[in-house]
Here is the input.
Amino acid sequence: MQCFACCPPIRPKGYDHYPFRSSLRRLFIDSTALIKKGVLPQKEMLGFFCPGLGFLDKSGQKIGCLLHPLQNQGRDLRVLTGYQPKCARESCPASRAYAVLSAEDRLYFRDLCLGMDSFSFSSPGQNPVMRLLNLGPLLARLVFKAGPFGLAEMDSWACLGPDLPPAEGWFLAGLAGLRGKQLLWDPGLPVLLKELNHDLLCRLEPLSPRDGGEPLNCLTNEWEARFWRHLTGRNRVVPAELENWRAALNRILI
Here is the structure.
């Protein structure tokens, strides 16, 4: 399995390679053949295709960067595309969530994806594990403890549907931890979360000025910060106000 969802590193929001797999496969075949012959990109890339992407295996199942140092004895040839700095620092919420899970959790979710080619594995639309990890590690751990589940079963869960923003993952993990894991597949979940969000936001008003306080990422972890930004539209908050937000949230949860 190999993920290439963030390649190239500039894409429109919600872009998914999967619907374009037939045309992309032909391009990957050509790119792989050229790079194997030593014909490297001659100009910076434009659009949503990178000439450095190709097949890392003979079967055409594993797609990745042919210009990456791991494929070139330590030489980083990604600079030829014009996007090397962004490629080098690129990460996504799913990969960061996966990185902080326990080894046992990671093995469980990895095994769920066995047999997927890179197109399916990289696609949030095709891979419910990717959608789950986008919601953050707390919810992923909750699912691991409540399992085992199959991919087909997970694919139908309300929490992994298009109506639930990924930023809600941290809030949902706390809610499901108290009210039960059945919330994850309850069809009424999106409506419930909207109602709870509205109630919570009303309890937080009036909010401090947008430019006051400290960056949320400096006061808490990525997943909690993402939820508060989504709910309040604030990137900064006074520490005492954040504690008030958390107290209001606890009253909502119970």
Summary: The mean pLDDT is 92. DSSP finds 13 helices and four strands in the chain. The radius of gyration is 21 Å. The chain has two domains: 18-89, 93-253.
